Amino acid sequence: MDNITTANEHILIIEDDERLAALTREYLEGNGFRVSVEHDGTNGVERILSLRPDLVILDLMLPGEDGLSICRRVRHQYPGPILMLTARTDDMDQVLGLEMGADDYVPKPVPPRVLLARMRALLRRADGSETNEQEETRLEFRDLVVDSSTREAWLNGERIDLTSAEFDLLWLLASHAGRVLTREEIFSALRGIRYDGQDRSIDVRVSRIRPKIGDDPHQPQRIKTVRSKGYLFVREI
Q1: Please, are residues 158 and 143 in contact by the beta-carbon 8 Å criterion?
Q2: How far is 117 from 215, CA to CA, in rounded Å?
Q3: I need a surface site. Which of 38, 85, 169, 211 has the fewest CB within 10 A?
Q4: Distance CA 233, CA 103 (A)
Q5: Quick check: 21 pLDDT over 90?
Q6: How far apart (Å, rounded) are the C-alpha atoms in residues 234 and 137?
């Protein structure tokens, strides 16, 4: 069990490369975080649920239990952001990570400043600090209600089970209802990076959100795909 220093946000690193984990821990602690480390995937689920960190950095390939399995098992019990690391360049690994509930993914090797920027973006969105207090925080579309102050959504009065990343995307689209948002705009708003034309993470999240908000995945009426452009959240259906 690690010794945990005092700071604001608590980060759990689940990484079997001990040298990489130590270097990452040292860098993050130097930037004011409390950091815990776990090297064995077998203990990953228990460590996440017992420590309840503010953010998890989760390696994809781990001994005992891989990162995808860990993410899937904790996602409905752990509400915080999960940032997945992968040494693979296979697009399907990234898609699977998002489908299991990861909030973001970063390919290895990642420059420490890039990792820190992505972490801070996830933490800001998770605690709602990016919301402008003067902006509307509750949006209602007949049977669908989306509230940014509580980071919750309801369909016909029933709370919708959304990951942190899914809520961020739903809120972004809903708060721009009636306007097409390009993938470039969505990437810039949610991930702080430029769209490379290949990343499928937004498409995966939209496909997961649609059935949760009562939209037909095959003939969507609420979140429409605008070919070669992006997505449109329909104000009234």
Answers
A1: no
A2: 34
A3: 211
A4: 21
A5: yes
A6: 18
- Residues with Cβ within 8 Å of residue 29, at least 6 apart in sequence: 5, 7, 35
- From start to end of the chain, where are the E strands? 10-14, 34-38, 55-59, 82-86, 104-107, 138-141, 144-147, 152-155, 158-159, 180-182, 223-226, 230-233
Nearest to 5 by CA among 32, 34, 27, 26: 34
Cα gap 222→39, rounded to integer Å: 43
How far apart are the C-alpha atoms of 112 and 116, rounded to whole Å? 6
The C-alpha atoms of residue 103 and residue 126 are separated, in whole angstroms, by 10
Backbone angles phi, psi at 85, to 5 degrees: -105, 140
DSSP-assigned beta bridge partners for residue 170 = none
Listed range (107-111, 181-185, 205-209) with the worst mean pLDDT: 107-111
